[in-house]
Amino acid sequence: MSSDVSPVATVWLLDGRTVSDDQLLPYLSWLNPDELHRYQRFLRTERQRQFLLGRILLRFALGFLLKIAPSTISLSERPGHAPLLNRGDVKPGFSLSHSGTWIACAVSEQSELGLDIELMDAGRDLPSLAEQTFNENECASLKEKEGSERVTAFYTLWSTKEAQYKLASTSRSSTPAYCISLPHAEISIVLCSERQLSDIDIRNFDGL
What we know:
Elements (H helix, E strand, L loop, with lengths): L7 E8 L5 H4 L8 H9 L3 H22 L8 E2 L7 E2 L7 E7 L2 E7 L4 E7 L6 H8 L2 H8 L3 H24 L7 E5 L4 E7 L5 E6 L4
């Protein structure tokens, strides 16, 4: 990963509602045996779709970044961690996340990344969830907000913690993460990076 270039990242977004089951089936052939085994172990159709869509989106995002055919990208499963790209010449940073029907993938040639998205649901008991998850100061800050402002603040904080955790699991750096919240109407999106990014390109994926 180059350290003498200002880091940039691309965040790809895919709404699974735009993809039919018939469109998905041919892409099962892209999965390696370990990925296919994991796919088949999911009991819920929704989780199978999320997994398959995520691996498709990851391959397209890496293919676009590395200028290679997505179908040729080889990944290795790592239980409890993001997959490993089997390509010794380059080691781009990447991170996957899903929530509801949405799938997201962030990639960068210059920095490790941690990405989290969360479907913003105002109907959940956010104060109770906050007390279980956040510290006293964070809970107090949320209580000062009302309505949609509280919902946005809750999910932004949640996504930030998740994205920081993902980055910490891949980064060797002990320096604080650089995190940014990205705008979206339905989901909270937070991207954390090992190095401060000079630009983030957000793209809607509709390539299937």
